[in-house]
Amino acid sequence: MSFMGPQIPGRNFLNCVHIRVPQELFLTLGLISLVENILVILAIIRNRNLHSPMYYFICCLAVSDMLVSVSNVVETIFMLLNDNDLLDVHPGALRHLDNVIDVMICSSVVSSLSFLCTIAADRYITIFYALRYHSIMTTHRAITIIVLVWLTSITSSILFIVYHTDNAVIVCLVTFFCVTLVFNAALYLHMFVLAHIHSRRITAFQKGRRQSTSMKGAITLTILLGVFIFCWGPFFLHLFLILACPSSPLCKCFFQYFHLFLILIICNSLIDPLIYAYRSQELRKTLKELVLCCWCFGM
Predict the structure, then answer these.
(1) Alpha-carbon gap, residue 18 to 265, rounded angstroms
(2) What is the C-alpha separation between 151 and 161, in angstroms, rounded?
(3) What is the number of domains present in the chain?
(4) Cα–Cα distance between 194 and 215 in angstroms, integer?
(5) Which residues form the G-protein coupled receptors family 1 profile domain (predicted)?
């Protein structure tokens, strides 16, 4: 990406171990992730039981993951073709392609963080305002939120790429990452503490069942958030170190592992659909039907 700061290929600082990541690995992981997220999106569209605000937000999160996969696959294919002298493209066209890929990845970052916050807020409302949930989180409001998130993500990403040479862009991304993490952590902590206290007071079976279902959704999103932090954390630390110590030998050593951080980002897009399927029986059932249909069609 163009605003990632200095890349230092071919140099070794503090006897850093240089790790080369094959382009084929990027391509393989990207294709698997792409197929997984497409299946999740199709499953949510196909199953009417999944037509609810939470699954709309999860579908958008899958689209965000798909953006990472698509950008990775396209970029890797072009690099493989270029390395083998099978592609003769004008440098200007490659720059435009790189900018488009950067916008896609940046949009994925901003939208993923935004939808994680949105899902957290949705679970919070489900748990503590169960009787008013359908009047608070209507389908119309959910769609409005989705449109606003995508418009904001795409617009901010274009601005980030246009002004990628300005350190303010990196400051904005790192700040947004930290703010959303604090927001989610505070919301989940409050959610689980109060839900534990509230669950003791529930006597009606139906309410207890609803509480259990809502908490299951909250736990699912907690897992998603944890995976996101683990996979994207090194990347944002990379951005922070570009601002904090761009000339430090230790930081330059850390910069050399940038491709490993990209692998982690792709793994996040690959793991998320597995979490959806594992935590949701309804979604898992629909995914099995889709895979079976695709297999039978292929036969």
Answers:
(1) 19
(2) 16
(3) 1
(4) 11
(5) 36-276
Sign of CA dihedral 293, 294, 297, 299: negative
* CATH number reported for the structural domain that contains residue 219 in this entry: 1.20.1070.10
Q: Is the pTM of this model over 0.70?
A: yes
Average pLDDT, the chain: 81
**What token pair was written down for 164?**
């990628």
Q: Which domain holds residue 48?
A: 23-298
Q: CB under 8 Å to 225, separation ≥6 — which residues?
A: 116, 120, 184, 188
Q: Establish if 10 belongs to a structural domain.
A: no
- The answer to whether residue 4 sits within a structural domain is no
- pLDDT for res 205: 46
**Of the candidates 100, 103, 108, the residue with the CA atom closest to the CA atom of residue 149:** 108
CB 113 within 8 A of CB 184: no
Q: What is the pLDDT of residue 6?
A: 43
